[in-house]
Specification:
301 residues, mainly alpha, Serine Threonine Protein Phosphatase 5, Tetratricopeptide repeat, 2 domains
């Protein structure tokens, strides 16, 4: 049967986390792409089904507007999940679900592992719909990073969320898992950036900045490469404050540049949320993270 990328990634993480053990038959089957894809069900094409889908999506967006409230975020996830079930493979519902799960993963550390996994599942299903050539390639056993070259602009957003969630899932597990997926995740994210760097408020540039900071220059990473990505993210969406938080948290700490660290976090805390109400929840999350980083300043420098 056709393989499922999320399950293959999970198998990779399992094998990477247990390097001294022989892989189980189940793990080998998953890594070989022999696990069935999730049941796609029947698309709701009746007028009643379409009306219910629209209702669930509208209710999900209304709840997601208040995503700082965990109860409303949970409600949004439930509504988007219901919409996705009514219209299996529908990119709009799946991307809304991936976005909501990604916000939960970043806002609530204890939920990160499960939320990134669910974001990855939703994003991959959307990617399969928008980029069938990608799906065909990975089902043949091709590496997801290489298969990403077959994604066109229509698949930029699903590819971005899938790459981001894949790395997030690995980071929640630990460094061994990160090392297992970093090359594929980076290749997918670089392709997403080339297709549409503006997705999620310059999310591809923001992610690459964070990831490249930890790689040596010989591998295309390093401080210079990371700084270039972060600066591009800043220039595209200067009002999106999580970019400055990630820059301070990762690049400034790596360089031991205390001045950069304090300046960026100061800008985050001073930002007037009324200037960008649509991303108010993300900017208020950025302020919370900035305060936490400043509280740890003496241990970081």
């Amino acid at each position: 049967m056709a393989g499922h990328v999320v399950l293959a990634v999970a198998a990779t993480l399992l094998l990477a986390a247990q390097p001294n053990r022989s892989p189980s038959p189940i793990a080998l089957a998953l890594a070989a792409g022999e696990a069935a894809r999730p049941d796609q069900g029947t698309v709701a094409t009746s007028p009643g089904g379409r009306a219910r889908y629209t209702e669930e999506m509208q209710a999900g967006e209304a709840a997601f507007a208040g995503r700082e409230d965990p109860a409303l975020l949970t409600a949004a996830i439930g509504r988007f999940s219901a919409a996705a079930a009514l219209q299996p493979g529908d990119p709009a519902a799946l991307l809304s679900l991936a976005r909501a799960q990604a916000f939960r993963a970043q806002a609530t550390r204890e939920a990160a592992r499960d939320s990134w996994r669910e974001a990855s599942r939703a994003a991959e299903q959307a990617l399969r719909t928008t980029a069938p050539a990608f799906a065909e390639a990975v089902d043949r056993g091709e590496d997801p990073g290489r298969a990403a070259t077959k994604v066109d602009r229509a698949g930029a957003a699903p590819l971005y969320w899938f790459a981001l969630a894949t790395m997030g899932m690995a980071q929640a597990r630990g460094m061994v898992a990160v090392l297992a997926v970093k090359d594929a995740a980076r290749a997918m994210m670089e392709r997403a950036a080339a297709l549409d760097e503006r997705v999620d408020f310059a999310g591809p540039r923001r992610a690459l900045g964070a990831w490249l900071a930890t790689l040596p220059s010989a591998a295309g990473g390093g401080a210079g490469a990371a700084r270039s990505q972060f600066e591009r993210a800043h220039s595209l969406f200067p009002e999106y404050q999580l970019a400055r938080v990630r820059d301070a948290e990762i690049l400034a700490v790596l360089l031991q540049d205390r001045k950069r660290f304090e300046a960026y976090l100061g800008e985050v805390l001073a930002f007037d949320d009324a200037r960008a109400p649509a991303i108010g929840p993300e900017n208020r999350l950025a302020k919370r993270l900035a305060r936490e980083l400043l509280a740890r300043k003496e241990r970081l420098f």
